[in-house]
Design a protein that fits this description.
The structure is a single chain. The chain has 409 residues and is α+β, with helices and mostly antiparallel strands. The chain has 9 helices and 23 strands. The strands form 5 sheets. A 6-stranded antiparallel β-barrel has the order 3-4-5-8-7-6. Strands 9-10-12-15-14-13 form a 6-stranded antiparallel beta barrel. Strand 21 and strand 22 form a beta hairpin. The longest helix has 35 residues. The radius of gyration is 40 Å and the shape is globular. The termini are far apart.
């Protein structure tokens, strides 16, 4: 007996499978729709004029801003903020004596005719100038170049915070080109002094100066950056008048007019030199600047503050240059050196074993040919230092060690 077609067991199972698939489809669709609705309410929020904006826009992530801010705070920024408050402007008034010419229209042609008829007259003219410096002690000691304050009758010291003081030239030394100006004030910032003995060519060099503090409303110092281009540069005698520049720091950090006397700092914010002069054809910075090493400056400063001068050292010998005639008489063909003509008893040279007739060939390892070179070789040595003299005696070379004393009055 056969069952009707509509009640076949196979067809019944197919209908149940269809209903089950349809039910699972409804459940999956409901879950998907619920997820979309929930997601839209958490990610989007109504914005202005009916637009939708991410919630993240209302609470921006500040970690990126913090990273950018920290990356901007470089070693140059840190050095400028550490040394900058101690940098000052030096407004200097100098007096120059001016003589007028009696010749009409300044012509040299008429000068012999009017020389006796119209007498010339002289008058004093005040000349303002500016430079930089930096405070090295809370007691008010300001270090600068001697040429900045040379001939100054009035010195005004302007700090980065806007305060102004009358400066007094405490002491100066033209050949070292360094000077100390004293100011009286409270809470004076002092620049941290580093060392110039271990400088590395290529490391950061930050030149800081304040040449416009008297002219601008903003008294903050200017900052230029570069690298240490070279160390131990000796400038030849005669190229910078009577001043002696030895073991200078060379840098390509811009040192512009008015920056003389300001500090040269390293990446740690320590002063390593005193900006002094530049080599230039145009009058502006061309990337060849020089600074006095701070270690040499500190030695001079100690002398200037303690004694009011740099004490002259005493060797105790009187020398002659080796002329062709003297060299022939001594039987030597080498004319480089100095002949010891006399010796002061009890002097450092006498105590070291020098004798009349010695030929000094080297001073502190530097070969010399005249008195000026010997003086440059001794430049920077202080009372109490020990130097070496290489002398030739009876065709034998020997080295003498001298303990320098102060030149007697």
């Amino acid at each position: 007996m056969s069952l009707p077609e509509g009640r076949s067991p196979i067809r019944a199972r197919e209908r149940r499978d269809v209903r089950s698939a349809w039910l699972w489809g409804v459940v999956f669709g409901f879950l998907l729709l619920t997820g979309l609705v929930v997601g839209s309410t958490t990610v989007l929020t109504p914005g202005p004029r009916g637009t939708s904006e991410p919630i993240a826009a209302a609470a921006p992530d500040t970690s990126e801003k913090r990273d950018l801010s920290s990356s901007r705070r470089t070693a140059i920024v840190e050095a400028a903020q550490r040394v900058g408050p101690a940098v000052v402007t030096l407004s200097v008034v100098q007096t120059r004596l001016v003589q007028t010419s009696p010749v009409p229209f300044g012509s040299d042609f008429f000068e012999p005719f009017f020389r006796d008829m119209i007498p010339s007259y002289r008058y004093r003219e005040q000349i303002p100038s500016m430079g930089s410096g930096f405070i090295i002690s809370p007691k008010g000691y300001v270090l600068t170049n001697e040429h900045v304050v040379h001939g100054a009758e009035k010195i005004t010291v302007i700090l980065a915070d806007g305060r102004s003081f009358t400066g007094k030239l405490l002491a100066a030394h033209p050949q070292y080109d360094l000077a100390i100006v004293k100011i009286e004030g409270q809470n004076l910032p002092a620049a941290p002094l580093g060392s110039s003995d271990d400088l590395m060519v290529g490391e950061w060099a930050i030149a800081i100066g304040n040449p416009f503090g008297f002219l601008l409303n903003d008294t903050q110092p200017t900052v230029t950056a570069g690298v240490i281009s070279a160390t131990r540069r000796d400038i030849k005698a005669g190229s910078t008048s009577d001043r002696i520049y030895k073991n200078m720091i060379q840098t390509d950090a811009a040192i512009n007019p008015g920056n003389s006397g300001g500090p040269l700092a390293n990446a740690r914010g320590e002063v390593i030199g005193v900006n002094t002069f530049i080599f230039t054809k145009s009058g502006g910075s061309e990337g060849i600047g020089f600074a006095i090493p701070i270690d040499a400056a500190k030695r001079v400063v100690d002398e200037l503050i303690q004694y009011g001068k740099v004490r002259n050292v005493w060797i105790g010998v009187r020398t002659w240059e080796l002329t062709p005639y003297l060299a022939e008489r001594l039987g030597t063909s080498d004319r480089n050196g100095l002949y010891v003509a006399s010796l002061e008893k009890g002097s450092p040279a006498d105590k070291a074993g020098a004798k009349v007739g010695d030929i000094i060939r080297n001073v502190n390892g530097t070969a010399i040919s005249d008195v000026n070179e010997a003086y440059r070789a001794l430049f920077g040595a202080r009372v109490g230092d020990t130097i070496t003299l290489t002398v030739e005696r009876d065709s034998k070379v020997m080295t003498l060690r001298l303990l320098l004393l102060e030149l007697p009055e």
